[in-house]
Input
Amino acid sequence: MSDIMSYLFETNAVRFCPENKPFWYTSGKIGPYFINTHFVYGSEEEATSLLKFIDEALSDKLTLPKKVFEKTLNQYKTNSIYKDVIDSMISYIKDNIDISEIDYISGGERRDWFFSNTIAHLLNKPHISIYKDLNTVVSDSNFENTEKVFDLSGKKVLHIADLITIASSYIRAWIPAIKNLNANICWSCVVVDRMQGGQEKLAQEGVKSLSLVNIDKNLFEKALNMNIINKSQFDMLNKFFENPDETMKQFLIEHPEFLENALNSDEKTKGRAKLLIDGNLYGIK
Output
């Protein structure tokens, strides 16, 4: 899957922070890299455009799946990066799952749909669109008909997603939504696994987890060899991979100006810095 790794760099889907300038995450924690997996749709601009399109069409849950599918299928036919990613996911799925056992493919609002709709079509499987409010609609593999379905008794589902971190979306929404239909997510396939415990969480739920790329030392070494990062950044990434909280706690202790600067920065950064301080997220005394 080395080509997929290269696409993550080429589309800026993976970004590494400059030395001593970690990124702020939504949670209020900080870290040395940031991932926007959906950029492998082709580019940041194209991915952002599709997200905006989805947001504008979200109000009608029954017509949305076909609209998104038409966009992603056209992208599959015209963009070589996206096509290669989709084809790689399909090959990986076929190598690890008996396709005949899959009854449905599901994808959750919103970034999962970048991948799940096209894959459902190419594997000739009906698609379940899962919304954040746990509502679901089912489309045929060509997305010609979409309807509200209330019972999929005993059916087996493969969930397709862009990224897995700690599997919080699965636990909170995707797995319960499918269980509400009396069906089960038996497998998950993602483009990127951040290797932060998601796979283990899914295993506890009886879900087999597959991923094209793991965010680990192999990815960092590739970035170093491509001169995307230097040795100092590489060392920080490896420390973070081994123990993220302790590594960032030590950074904050050694660079108190980082937090001070954040509190005097733009509103978004200031808000995340306050989350860190108010929640004492790194246990600094």
Summary: The radius of gyration is 20 Å. The domain at 38-215 is CATH 3.40.50.2020 (Rossmann fold).
